[in-house]
Amino acid sequence: MDQTEKGTVMTEKSSVWNAVSALRKAQPLVLNITNFVVMNNTANALLALGASPLMAHAPEELDEMLTISQALVLNIGTLSAPWIESMKKAGEIASTKKVPVVLDPVGAGASRLRTQTSLDLIECASPAVIRGNGSEIMALAAALGIEAPQGADTQTKGVDSQLAALEVKELARGLARKAQAVVCVSGPEDYVTDGDRGVRVIGGSSLMPRVTGLGCTATSLVGAMLAVVESPFDAAVHAMHVMSTAGAMAASRAAGPGTLQLHFYDALYSLDEDDLLGCVQVEED
């Protein structure tokens, strides 16, 4: 990324587009161990952008599946004991095979099970990227002993966030350093940090939170970018840039949440370089 003026980062004209082009050419296989609510959504989004989704969670086949996969998505949205064990096993195998992992700690902070599972997966899978909403990131940071701002409430409202990304940016930086991972916080503005650098991605649409699973979709797009972009930080920024662009394009054509999802897939499919330059602002923070 090139700094064009103080405080503002313009994603290199060719950088995010090169990543999308590389993804479409490589069609990376992205293994998703994800929740029942979003399997169809995330598979369609990956296909629309140009990646190849794989939905599998049986422990007996994970070694084989990760041998042929270029990225692993772990999403804890609908937890059960067998799925937790599969996620842990997949994370360990991916770490051994050097397959990049993105973790979505859905609902961390809402229950001890979700918070502890997220912490266990950070430990065993060594995710390259952790992507969640503000409340989830704050809950994980608090669980790891990273001090929250005075008076902050770490309670998660189900899987939805009561906190904007920028409200938790210092905790996100602390979590990134502690977990040795890039942390991506989604919201009206997205925030990506590796503990040192921080970038805001500004775009998308206010309609996006009205469609279930778009946060999980963002996680899968991060996974796809991890398969073709060497830097996890750049992969996360590029994925959120693509997500925000497609959301803005879809909203311009949609009558409401139902048609937003329809047009969102079309936007991912038709996305070109001019689209990426026109809808989103990326700033250092």
Task: Describe this structure as you would to a colleague.
- With 285 residues, this protein is of the alpha/beta class.
- The chain has one domain (2-284): UDP-N-acetylmuramoyl-L-alanine:D-glutamate ligase (3-Layer(aba) Sandwich).
- The chain contains 11 helices and 11 strands.
- It has a 9-stranded mixed β-sheet, with helices on both faces. A two-stranded antiparallel ribbon has the order 1-2.
- α4 links the parallel β5 and β6.
- α3 packs across α4 (81-97).
- The two termini are 14 Å apart.
- The model is unreliable at 1-13 and 157-161 (pLDDT under 50).
Helix percentage range:
40-55%
How many strands in all? 11
Straight-line distance between termini: 14 Å
Query: Quick one: CATH superfamily?
Result: Ribokinase
The mean pLDDT is: 90
Shape: globular
Mind summarizing the main beta sheet? 9 strands, mixed
Order of helices and strands: EEHEHEHEHEHEHHEEEHHHHE
User: Which fold name is given in CATH as the topology?
Assistant: UDP-N-acetylmuramoyl-L-alanine:D-glutamate ligase
Number of distinct helices:
11
Q: What's the alpha carbon Rg, rounded to whole Å?
A: 17 Å
Name of the CATH class:
Alpha Beta
Q: Number of domains in the coordinates?
A: 1
